[in-house]
């Protein structure tokens, strides 16, 4: 295997990082309509770079929402084809006042780069692009394997656009396997392959009581209170031990194989350390009889994310709001089916609606849970590539998060996904002070270079 | 009794209304720090007008919060002294998008003036000032009785400043009775005297779980969810029938006299009309076995006003927030004691805190519940004055709202309060599209002129 690409990547580290910073400065928050132009700007930025490094058929594909970016290079006759996937959109940055430095002014501190999207997923997207550049530049404008790349701008809002594209244009995405870098390493310096994801159903419950906001002095005792109604509903979705009370909810929940559970036990994980350093709460919560890794990887959960409505300023306002809402999501595990779960949830919630309240149930996004088999050659090649870079055996883990597209790739393209992720557990994904560990940015690029060379040589 | 003052008031109606509009344009929102200068501007506006009409010793009195405005005219030897009370601060205007016209651009529609503070309480404050002006201008610069006026700027944030002033400077407020115009009429055209108020305890529960916001995929199933905790707590504060479950909460709740309950039954009130036209909910809620008037006037309640924290934007964000809060208030009735109730509430809430959550309990404001005796001569005189203006018998009602200062006047000044209010039940107090019925603004001025003349003649 040629070391030239690795040398090129090492020599250009600072430039690669500076380019990433430029991308991080674009506030491509897909969920907020006021950032629509920024989202398009991020798509254009990525497309221009793909073109510059040598990718062909670079295309910004319109969808009903934010555009997809597609490119390919398909001249490695007889070699396998990889479909690289990443996303250029980011989560909203709020609460803004908790960021030490502004979310869209990337700042280096202690070998980390702090910015919204640093790890999720712009840093990891840039790893793909820079690995491809290194291979092109040192390979006489050629790659060791065939490459398609599809990058979406709606991952944080449910990924409707790419899901539709995958369903309807599977011919344009024909490949032997997908490479998805949107996950994390189990521990610093420990090369990790993610082989399972939880699914998701994200909903909003909107409770409407009176026709207008009312004074709690005048109407308290007669008018329905939508927050009280939502509190009553939420308190009955789970018991005090974290067991979800929706009838039928657990019917399709499978147990991980004994071998997988055994491997998890050998991972470097200390629940007390995790409680203190990662979560920081007095106690951990969740279902009794399961370890933290089982609870977050292999058991479903239900969470409340926010309750819009009423008065949320400083001090007091004596209002009974006409309406209030609760954002509630469920994480699912194989073999739960999101559509079925949403139906069970909706039916159960309807039985809990208190007197005087009208309830609307909205569904924002769904994702299938998935488990990837570890015995295919691409998974094996990625494991070896990472071991070479990190000088440690690669571990297999699952993630409690959801990447809906992985299930879609399996379902519609019939290909497995290799989830090589380079985030760290304390990277503050979706939270203030999101960061990416800069050495992992560089190691990620080298891992992908080695992985593609290995697949090209073996393929 | 001289009709000159009434004539003056009628001739100057348009000017009086235009002046009120100027006052309404000042966004004196006492609860929001960014409006501090506006609050002071409103105080200065009121003080300048008191001076202009002929009041003496006009003083803007600094407090730890927003200033008080004081003035007097004490040259009616041998006559009673009234202490006029009103407030110049207003509630926050949100939700802004539900206002048909901007909250601080007073707009006339259908004989109403729409603006934040129109009825609560700037319109009613201006009734006092314009009645005094009419009496001064037509009485050779003299009034028929002695007048002190004290106007606060913190009514909507708990009234700490005036409470302290009343406790510590009762000599400066020496009077025979107080006139408080911050209540409403029972029905359009029905002159109404309010003789009872609910008390209040306003609190905020802050639940803290993790040390930072966490991704619900990564941590869901292990990290405590503060919204879930608050939902669990709130759902256990009241049962499904509106009964408050705090032990000891009802111990001091008294029953209104049989005569008062009988009088309420004769008021023009239809629960189905009220449900449809005022509340607009599918059903009314509250304790079984009590009428709406009993539930809102003579029974305590507990309400949730807002639940700050987490993600409240459009769409979905998969966060387990580190903290969340609930604004919870209780309305109290005689003889419940706010301090005791806060203690019982806090003790009970502490027993409900779920695993992994730290709970902080804050208290923002309290008010004593009160009932005024109807057999004193000032109450009688006001009843007659309103009957003369409205050509109908004045009815006695209670209000479900709280005016803490009325209890303080009784406790520290040993004087009764005459609560003549000119708002209407559909005036959208504390809600979007707050209004004041313009004919009631004029009738209010005439009622107070007649009331003061009657007290002066009889005194």
In summary, what is this structure?
2 copies of one chain form a homodimer. The first copy, chain A, is α+β, with helices and mostly antiparallel strands. The first copy, chain A, has helices spanning 4-11, 13-24, 36-53, 118-138, 160-168, 216-219, 226-235, 258-265, 271-279, 292-297, 338-352, 377-390, 404-413, 438-458; strands at residues 56-61, 68-73, 81-87, 107-109, 112-114, 146-152, 177-180, 192-197, 199-208, 214-215, 301-310, 319-320, 323-332, 358-367, 370-371, 395-399, 417-420, 435-437.
Structural notes for this entry:
Two copies of one chain form a homodimer. Chain A has 459 residues and is of the alpha+beta class. Chain A has helices spanning 4-11, 13-24, 36-53, 118-138, 160-168, 216-219, 226-235, 258-265, 271-279, 292-297, 338-352, 377-390, 404-413, 438-458, and strands spanning 56-61, 68-73, 81-87, 107-109, 112-114, 146-152, 177-180, 192-197, 199-208, 214-215, 301-310, 319-320, 323-332, 358-367, 370-371, 395-399, 417-420, 435-437. In chain A, helix 1 crosses helix 4, helix 4 crosses helix 14 and helix 12 packs across helix 14. Chain A is globular, with a radius of gyration of 23 Å. Chains A and B meet through strand 9, strand 10, helix 6, helix 7 and helix 9 of A and strand 9, strand 10, helix 6, helix 7 and helix 9 of B. Strand 11 of chain A pairs antiparallel with strand 11 (301-310) of chain B.
